[in-house]
Amino acid sequence: MADMILRLRLLVGRAPLLVLVFLFVSFSSCTLKSPSGQGEIVATVYAEHLYKSDIERDLSKVLRGEDSSIYVKNYIDNWVKERLMLNKAMLNLKQDEEIDIDRKLNDYKTSLIIYAYKKELLRQQLDTAISFDDILGVYEPNKKNFRLKNNIVRMLYIKVRKPVNGVREFRRLIASDNEEDRTSLSDYCQEYSTSFSLNDSNWVDFDQVIEKIPMEVVNQESFLRSKTYIEVEDSLSLYFLRITAYLLKDDISPVQYQVGNIRSTILNKRKLGLMRKLERNIYQDAKTNGDFTLY
Q: What is the pTM of this model?
């Protein structure tokens, strides 16, 4: 048990130090040969050794630096201190406390093994294909439960670096819903804009829109009710914003805005169903084969 605790501590959060230990022992002339043939011994505490081979096995990359030897020395010192402290703790732990630690370690190991198996099973068998009909099947019966937590908008947004040529024509294009005008606007943005969004069929969080434009909005609800077109500037750029639709906080959310959340809900439900099926099948097979006995 003590060895397992120590190895967990070594492996968690110490990759850089492990690398430095490797560099140190590679160039050290003071290492010993293990009588058991496990390789060079870096340090020994009572009957426990720190081996170069143990370090090499856990290396993922090699770090370089002028202070590597200092870090290595600190690491080995800490390793020795930990072993000394652990030895003292093991000598003074009550038996029931030691048993409890063993139980927790076994529980953790069991959980890790089961988790790894379930993860691989989900990778192989989980159906991740979700149609829009699947989305609607969740949304429609529960529409009233999908309330907005923020104000959202559909909009056209364009940022153009100064000076802007043909501003009047540009304003006409952004105000138009004509398909040809939208095409012309897109061409203009491709050539002159430094940032733009012309897909006003998508709903976006209004907070994210405000972050892109140099203006202060004290009351979003009042602003959205009274503004459909905003044009502001700073020292470098001109910003155009046309709001084509908006919904306020606590309104029923449109299904398009909930696609990601609903998809996650469907996937989680499928995962749970697959896991329950797995557990039932394993239990039933074991019962049929007489692999367990209940007293």
A: 0.65
